[in-house]
Design goal:
Blueprint lengths: L2 E7 L6 E5 L8 E5 L3 E8 L4 E9 L4 E7 L8 E6 L3 E8 L4 E9 L13 E4 L5 E5 L5 E8 L5 E3 L3 E2 L5 E9 L7 E8 L10 H5 L2 E9 L4 E10 L5 E4 L10 E5 L2 E5 L8 E4 L2 E2 L12 E8 L4 E7 L3 E10 L2 E12 L3 E6 L4 E6 L4 E6 L10 E3 L14 E2 L7 E7 L5 E7 L8 E6 L6 E7 L1 E10 L6 E5 L10 E5 L4 E6 L3 E3 L11 E7 L3 E6 L2 E5 L5 E5 L6 E6 L3 E6 L3 E8 L4 E4 L4 E2 L4 E6 L11 E6 L3 E6 L8 E6 L4 E9 L5 H5 L9 E8 L3 E7 L6 E8 L6 E7 L3 E7 L3 E7 L2 E8 L5 E5 L7 E6 L2 E7 L6 E7 L4 E7 L4 E9 L4 H11 L5 H7 L3 H4 L9 E8 L6 E7 L3 E14 L29 E13 L10 E10 L4 E10 L3 E7 ...
Parallel strand pairs: 1-91, 23-32, 37-62, 82-86
Antiparallel strand pairs: 1-90, 2-3, 3-4, 4-5, 6-7, 7-8, 8-9, 10-11, 11-12, 12-13, 12-14, 15-16, 16-17, 17-18, 19-20, 20-21, 21-22, 24-25, 25-26, 26-27, 27-31, 28-29, 29-30, 30-33, 34-35, 35-36, 36-66, 37-65, 38-39, 39-40, 40-41, 42-43, 43-44, 44-45, 46-47, 47-48, 48-49, 48-50, 51-52, 52-53, ...
């Protein structure tokens, strides 16, 4: 087995986000470091939206990023710390539209090691140097400068190591242009290892240490140190050098302390306010999770965020360089973030720990609120007890959310189902944490938003938008054509019917377009009407017994087709503003079905080509140049009747705003011919801009309806082609490549581009008898999301296949449930009323659930309709009970016998359970149940519980609700449940037990104790049981019906820590572990045959084990380091008519597929291509790609498809060089890469 791994949806978790002018533009941008790639966003102040600029794969683990700008520079660079053992400085290339390596130096071994620097990076605020440090011992300082050609250079590293020391944070201290100073938060553990009493650990304190880089002597010295609180976790550098007092804020549990070694500087401490909460834990203070410093012209402030999501505004009062007072007050509450970025344009970007990332706009700076402000002058430094100050949280007032970046992290579990019976399956994913959790329904396609929907007096046939003049910014009219009339709507503050427009409205319209600077064109079946701005109309009427059957136009050219296959071409005389027929008419030899004329290229008088489709199933490209007008340049034969054509230049198209920022245009524009056929096929060919020849033809099936094509404008004013069939599609340029992607919307009949004050890149379309104005918001996404909110963190879900309802179990640790919270509040407050309790309970959607002591659980069982998003039933678990496992099973229940007795309700019968595929015997009935494993008073460390149950529920009310049948007590938490031959197989710690359904409880039928740690998953294939242990990988076991025991006969020689697994066939299992590896394990064929042939089971029972394990060993077929924790694996068919692939999801939010190769030729081709990409385009971070994919085990039988697709981003010279080595053309290599994705995935 060989696999081809592709990413369908990148990880959405953000490790860190920074701001800077990375592209050299005048506006600030946001750079986010995801797990293994960088993403650059540019905020648009006009629309308050974030637009993606660049996505850069690193093929290495990003640990931290830091911006810096050389003194006197106009753009920011990025210092990246990764697991490559290197320090990398990146700069954004305007020509390549991606980041490139400016400087890179290696300082240590690769991998995530605590003593290898890269965990922390801090730059000097003046851009002269940077310090990179590890968790333990090692720190390096690098000096930056320019060479004679003003290019960035970096010196050799200067050591600042300190043995037996842990580092918790590093920042650059702003000291102006004096010698650069870096502050580190350290703790020495010298002597801790030798101390057996444990007292040294308690006495080991943390220190704030200043390291000074002497630019004259070129060395680093430990300048100053001062003890800080043992709970300190974060440092914040304050502005200095005339902009502020310099120094740092040390964030500790419950307080913030200002420290500095400057002359006259003294320490200032202020307590962090906490929410008013009667159930608060007074032994635990607020911890700062994220911070941002914002500088203004004459002041600055700091925005801090606590671990509960509360934002605090910190201001520092100072005179000169002496701090007088530090003040803090509550600001607002947003979801807890990993990074906060304040932009000068008045926006705040918050990279959330879980859930969607927020983009907020400041409404005010929180100075006018009545929230109390606390000062460092009120703090008693002599007090050893924690100081408590309080505030009352409120809804968002100083911030307003204006946009959000959708995220699927953390993705806990997913299922691939086609419940909506669409062309492609949907992915139902349990995402989020706590009150921000949701069931997200992911569909392949771009999301469309409706701006307006209006009914029309009939079913229209076509729609166009037109401007009165070329200088108009917005469209003036919407022209709708019916079967026997035309409706003209004027666009203003409202869309209403227009009169006196000179459009002919008593006949249907074939085409509407702008002509010249201030004219419009209307084409009907009997005439071509040229409407001037002053109301004058010129008509060209068709000859007798002839009519126009098709028409196409641009700003200065018109091409019409008469019946009997005759073409007539017109050009606009710019001097006289009149349309003139050009030369002789051309006969095509067959009836014309569609026409297309290119838009006039900028700087040219006319478009060079037109396209004509005929009933003889051919499409011809004609020249429109004067010297060869209407001469055929090329021809394309198609397999069915052409329905529509589009001749469009894609690429280029930088907006005027981009150009004003000094950016280069996008990918050079190339003309493409798009053909829509009546059988639902879509063809795209590249048109040679000089000769008009056709090449690189791609074909795709879009739907069951004929394909109609329309040119539209999308984000950043890019040209794109919308293809309408049984569902709408969009073809556009994304990351320099052509992308055809469906639109998640209803089927449309006709479409046109629409520019208005609400959206410059809108689309007006018709569907049956409605007129719709639509927009495409996030063109960079490949999956659109519909979220259904949940109450607690989701754990598992299962589907009722008949009613198509999900049952979801949710549970949160250290959280009060709704009922327990009310009870605790009533107990803690005397003479409290229900109204008082309601006021104490904050909305969990914004403020989260109330935190409880360890061992307290909040859990519920939810029955959900995924189509409407409604919860048909919600069962709250009480008495500190939580749900841990879930299964929908068809269990065999006993029915009364003829003599009045019952079967299977009197205890253990000693009979062997049937095989997993066996049908119920006579006198037994199979019924669908839901089995949920629960436990009470669970503690995680050490693992224990007071009670545990297997609860069996029956579906009622047509499968929309659950009814409890009975609860069976068990000794341990049921971590895994499996339907096995009509019975229930349960994993209880190290025990596997088989139950039969009874009337009052589950009846124990068999039990086996296996020598493992904690069984987390069970799967079955015939009489085989595949057991997954929490840290002992996968085991193959055999169930013996005669002895009612389970015997392990094969295991994995590598002690992996599985997080997800799936059975691929009788001998093969795929699994992911907690270190981010994907592995496929297989039982050797010889062993499998021997086990199957041994009907007595003696071979399994009596064969001696090897290496303290099972007698036989599994062989690893595939090893591949994904770099993310896999949470679910599925076998799925993602494309209609495609093959089955392995789809898996990760905790970080990514969705990836592993496609099995069936052709040796394809395998060898991709292996060779991967080898060339590794050498021609090595990862930016300096990590060897093969080493990265072999982080824990050598990569085996798996090709990195994401790396292979980097071929499409290489320069033309490198593409041709690699294609020559592969004995293919560049087009063939690109087509092969596209086929590998579109034929099996998306």
């Amino acid at each position: 087995m060989h696999l081809y791994n592709l990413t369908l949806h990148k990880a959405t978790v953000i490790n860190q986000a920074i701001i800077g002018r990375f592209t050299g533009a005048k506006r600030q941008e946001v750079l986010a470091a995801h797990n293994d790639y960088l993403e650059l966003w540019r905020p648009d102040p006009e629309t308050s939206k974030l637009h993606q600029v660049c996505v850069q794969a690193m093929f290495g683990r990003i640990r931290t990023i830091c911006p810096f700008r050389l003194t006197g520079g106009s753009r920011d660079h990025v210092i990246v710390g990764t697991d490559a053992g290197t320090i990398t400085v990146l700069e954004y290339s305007e020509t390549k539209r991606r980041f490139i390596t400016a400087q890179q130096q290696t300082f240590g071994r690769s991998g995530l090691r605590r003593f290898i620097p890269g965990q922390y990076i801090a730059s000097d605020p003046r851009g002269r140097s940077a310090m990179i440090g590890g968790i333990e011992r090692q720190k390096f300082v690098y000096i930056f400068n320019r060479d004679n050609e003003t290019n960035l250079i970096m010196t050799s590293p200067l050591e600042a190591h300190k043995g037996h020391t842990f580092c918790f944070d590093i920042v650059g201290v702003d000291v102006g242009y004096e010698n650069p100073v870096f502050a580190a938060l350290e703790m020495s553990y010298a002597g801790v290892d030798a101390d057996r009493t444990g007292e040294a650990v308690k006495e080991a304190g943390k220190m704030l240490v200043y390291y000074e880089l002497d630019l004259g002597l070129n060395n680093v010295v430990r300048k100053w140190s001062d003890p800080v609180d043992s709970t300190a976790n974060k440092l914040i550098s304050l502005p200095g050098g005339g902009d502020g007092p310099s120094g740092v804020l040390v964030c500790a549990e419950g307080k913030i302390t200002y420290k500095h070694n400057g002359e006259g500087a003294r320490e200032h401490t202020v307590a962090i306010p906490r929410r008013v909460n009667p159930l608060e834990d007074r032994g635990r203070g607020v911890m700062i999770a994220a911070a941002a410093v914002h500088r203004m012209k004459s002041a600055f402030f700091i925005l801090l965020q606590g671990d509960t999501g509360d934002l605090y505004k910190v201001t520092v009062e100072y005179e000169g360089e002496i701090v007088i007072e530090v003040k803090i007050k509550y600001f607002d509450t947003i979801p807890t973030a990993t990074s906060l970025c304040i932009l000068r344009s008045g926006f705040l970007f918050a990279a959330s720990e879980a859930g969607n990332h927020g983009f907020y706009q400041f409404q005010d700076l929180g100075d006018d609120t009545e929230t109390p402000e606390y000062s460092s002058t009120d703090y008693d430094p002599e007090s050893e007890d924690m100081v408590f100050t309080y505030f009352q949280p409120h809804e968002l007032s100083s911030l307003a959310m204006v946009d959000e970046v959708e995220a699927t992290s953390p993705l806990i579990e997913a299922k691939v189902l086609n419940l909506a019976e669409e062309e492609t399956p949907q992915i139902y994913a349990l995402c989020g944490r706590g009150a921000g959790s949701a069931l997200k329904i992911l569909r392949h396609g771009l999301e469309m938003s409706e701006l307006a929907v209006s009914e029309l007096p009939g079913n229209p046939r076509a729609v166009w938008t037109v401007k009165k003049g070329s200088e108009e910014q917005f469209d003036t009219y919407i022209v709708v054509s019916f079967l026997d009339a035309t409706l003209v709507l004027s666009v203003g503050e409202e869309v209403e019917e227009a009169t006196n427009t000179e459009f002919q409205i008593d006949v249907p319209t074939l085409c509407v377009h702008e002509l010249g600077k201030d004219s419009m064109l209307q084409v009907t079946a009997g005439a071509l009407r040229h409407i001037r701005h002053d109301g004058r109309v010129s008509e060209w009427k068709t000859p007798r017994n002839r009519e126009i059957v098709a028409a196409a136009a641009n700003e200065s050219q018109v091409l019409i087709a008469l019946n009997r296959g005759e073409l007539v071409y017109f050009e606009l005389d710019l001097a006289s503003n009149t349309l003139r027929e050009w030369g002789e008419r051309v006969r095509m030899g067959a009836e014309v079905t569609a026409l297309a004329v290119m838009q006039r290229p900028e700087g040219r008088v006319r478009a060079p080509f037109a396209a004509v489709a005929s009933q003889d199933q051919t499409v011809r490209v004609l020249s429109l140049n004067p010297e060869s007008c209407m001469q055929q340049q090329s021809m394309q034969a198609v397999v069915d009747m052409p329905e529509s054509l589009a001749l469009v230049e894609l690429g280029g198209g930088a907006t005027s705003q981009d150009q004003s920022d000094g950016e280069t245009p996008r990918t050079p524009a190339s003309p493409y011919l798009f053909i829509g056929l009546q059988n639902g096929l879509f063809q795209r060919s590249v048109v040679d801009p000089v000769t008009g020849g056709l090449s690189d033809t791609r074909t795709r099936f879009l739907g069951t309806r004929p394909v109609r094509l329309f040119e539209v404008r999308v984000q950043d004013n890019q040209r794109a082609v919308m293809a309408l069939s049984s569902r709408p599609w969009l073809n556009h340029i994304y990351r320099s490549q052509n992308r055809l992607i469906p639109l998640s919307y209803d089927a449309l009949d006709f479409a046109s581009s629409f520019a208005s004050a609400q959206s410059m890149e809108g689309i007006v379309a018709i569907a049956e008898n409605t007129l719709r104005i639509l927009t495409i918001d996030h063109i960079n996404m490949s999956l659109n999301q519909a979220a259904i909110p949940l109450k607690y963190t989701p754990r598992r879900m299962a589907l009722n296949e008949e009613s198509k309802h999900f049952v979801i179990i949710e549970a949160d640790h250290a959280t009060y449930g709704e009922k327990s919270l009310r009870e605790k509040l009533i107990e803690s407050v005397e003479e409290v009323t229900e109204e008082d309790v309601d006021q104490c309970i904050l909305p969990p959607e914004q403020f989260g659930h109330t935190r409880a002591p360890k061992g307290q659980w909040a859990s519920c069982i939810r029955v959900l309709n995924p189509f409407t998003g409604e919860t048909s039933q919600l069962i709250e678990l009480e008495d500190n009970e939580a749900a841990f496992s879930l299964l929908t099973a068809q269990l065999v229940t006993s029915t009364p016998t003829q003599n009045g007795g019952t079967n299977g309700n009197s205890g253990d019968t000693g009979q062997a359970p049937p095989e997993a595929t066996e049908a119920p015997s006579s006198g037994e009935v199979a019924e669908h149940f839901v089995v949920i494993g629960t436990a009470r008073n669970v503690t995680l460390t050490p693992r224990s519980q007071s009670e545990a149950y297997l609860k069996v529920y029956r579906w009622v009310n047509d499968g929309t609700q659950l009814e409890l049948v009975h609860a069976t007590p068990v000794e341990e938490i049921p971590q895994a449940v499996l339907e096995y031959g009509g019975k229930l197989m349960v994993a209880l710690g190290r025990t596997i037990r088989l139950y039969q359904m009874g009337k009052k409880k589950l009846l124990r039928k068999a039990q086996t104790v296996v020598g493992l740690n904690l069984i987390t998953s069970l799967q079955a294939s015939g009489n085989r049981v595949i057991i997954t242990d929490v840290k002992e990988s996968v085991h193959f076991a055999l169930y013996q019906a005669s002895s009612q025991r389970i015997h392990i006969f094969a295991d994995d020689p590598v002690p992996r820590h599985p997080t997800a697994s799936i059975l691929l066939d009788h001998d093969t299992v795929a699994m992911g572990d907690k270190f981010g590896n994907l592995a496929v394990l297989r039982l050797p064929q010889k062993v499998s045959k021997e086990v199957e042939a041994d009907l007595s089971g003696n071979l399994v029972v009596h064969t001696k084990g090897r290496n303290n394990g099972a007698p036989f060993k599994l062989a690893d077929v595939v090893n591949y380091h994904v770099g993310e924790i896999i949470t679910s694996i599925h076998r799925a068919v993602l494309v209609a008519g495609g093959r089955e692939v392995l789809l898996y999801t990760t905790l970080q939010g990514s969705i990836q597929v592993a496609i099995p190769f069936v052709s040796k030729e394809d395998l060898e081709f991709m292996q060779t291509l991967e080898m060339h990409i590794r050498s021609e385009d090595p990862p930016l971070c300096g990590r060897d790609h093969a080493t990265y994919r072999s982080s824990f085990a050598p990569v085996k039988s798996c090709i990195d498809g994401d790396l292979c697709e980097q071929y499409l981003l290489l320069s033309r010279d490198k593409q041709e060089q690699i294609a020559l080595e592969l004995d293919r053309s560049v087009v063939e290599v690109a087509k092969k890469l596209e086929d590998m994705r579109t034929m099996f995935a998306f």
